[in-house]
Specification:
The chain has two domains: 3-75 and 199-414, Adenylosuccinate Synthetase, Chain A, domain 3; 100-194, Orthogonal Bundle (Adenylosuccinate Synthetase, subunit A, domain 2). The chain has twelve helices and 20 strands. The protein has helices at 16-24, 76-83, 104-117, 129-137, 150-163, 165-170, 178-192, 199-208, 241-247, 280-288, 307-317, 383-396; strands at residues 3-8, 29-32, 41-45, 48-52, 65-68, 73-74, 93-96, 100-101, 196-197, 213-216, 254-262, 265-267, 301-303, 305-306, 321-325, 335-344, 347-349, 360-367, 400-404, 412-414. A ten-stranded mixed β-sheet has the order 9-7-5-2-10-1-11-15-19-20, sandwiched between helices. Strands 14, 16, 17 and 18 form a four-stranded mixed β-sheet that branches. A two-stranded antiparallel ribbon has the order 3-4. Helix 3 (104-117) crosses helix 4 (129-137) and helix 5 packs across helix 7 (178-192). The chain binds guanosine-5'-diphosphate, 6-O-phosphoryl inosine monophosphate and magnesium ion.
Amino acid sequence: MKADMIVGIQWGDEGKGKIVDLMAQHYDVVCRYQGGHNAGHTIWVDGVRYALHLIPSGILNPKALNVIGNGVVVCPEALIKEMAQFDKLEGRLFVSDKAHMILNHHILIDQAKEKLRGAKAIGTTGRGIGPSYGSKIERSGHRLGELRDTEKLTLALVEFYDENRALFSALGIVTPNYETLKKELDGYAKVLLPFLTDTTHMIWTCLDENKKVLLEGAQGTMLDIDHGTYPFVTSSNTISAGACVGLGLNPKDIGKVTGIVKAYCTRVGNGPFPTEDFGAEGDQLREKGHEYGTSTGRARRCGWFDAVACRYASRINGCDDLAIMKLDVLDGFESIKVCVAYEVNGKRVETLPEDLENLKPIYEELPGWESVVGCRKFEDLPETAKTYLKRLEVLTGTKIGLISTSPDRNDTIIL
Ligand code: GDP
Ligand code: IMO
Ligand code: MG
């Protein structure tokens, strides 16, 4: 059996949580493969709101197993806090012992460096994501499996703090002493050790036994460290290829890829956003779409569907289809803009350039509709909404497999 995947197409917050939760009802295993608790996946079930950051969204399906793969950076404190929301996680949650840890110093470095960047700040979530992946790449990171010997780990960290004393004092960071750190790590070990395992072999076995496996992406394609709007990106490979590395799969293990995309566009944090609307319509999108971050509560920047970026994202992820989210947020707009190309140095460009700062979006305007909220059948959509969706299919070169018309699991059109 191959593993299916959902992946964010824009700058994150597309509605991945709702779709993973919906799909998880039909899967045996749900896996996260990159990112950390910078992710915020909101799920509404029967009027109850769940906000997940590290635990896969399959946790709301009592029958599904949930895996946090080696490619995720895990803040032990954040994971333990999130785990406390759920009863009986033993046998339902499995965490890779190869996943790197986000420790306190990573969080403090992230926040201190953002302050130093001033006007050039990335607008990170301040969760230590970049510094933790940085430690991993420069080979000074520590993996969850090292919690099996906290004395050795504590000694290694204290030595690291001593060697880097100058850096820490320049950033105004106070590092813990041996006793404090050992106590902290022992606390993590006590809770987390029963959940640590070799998730790579576990997933291989699941696939060999024809179990249905779903891979849950975090963030979005335009935040990918290699293929996004660098340096205003996160520090992992958010695209579908990241799932192979982040779980120990090979490309032949991957089955259907579904791209999750909003019917408009948002971005939180700094960096280029060609279709951003700074006027009243941008504000209307923010208020109607409740576009405030799940993790940080920050107001999201809002704008129009960018078909050029979506076409690029669909190709790079190998999307078999797209899930169009939050169509209801466009209810009541007289007309709706879609970016079909960019103007770069006076020329029309239909592919994504490296520099997204110095261009102008070229829009096509389509007629709006009164209401689609709660709609569950394609036939019941207003004609103008159908025309909008069909136009998106043509512009992105990808068929639409699902349309979402409210946060509720059931308000979904499956095509
Ligand atoms: P994720 O990070 O991709 O999982 O997305 P977030 O959870 O950060 O943000 C998406 C938000 O939109 C959440 O608050 C969802 O409850 C909400 N949402 C998802 N689908 C729909 C929809 O079709 N309509 C509306 N109005 N809200 C939706
Ligand atoms: P989900 O999974 C939206 C953004 C941050 C910042 C940049 C780098 O909910 O879609 P980081 O803390 O990762 O170093 O910040 O990435 N960012 C997200 N934006 N949704 C997310 O996750 C995000 N995770 C990180 O705002 O611009
Ligand atoms: Mg989110």
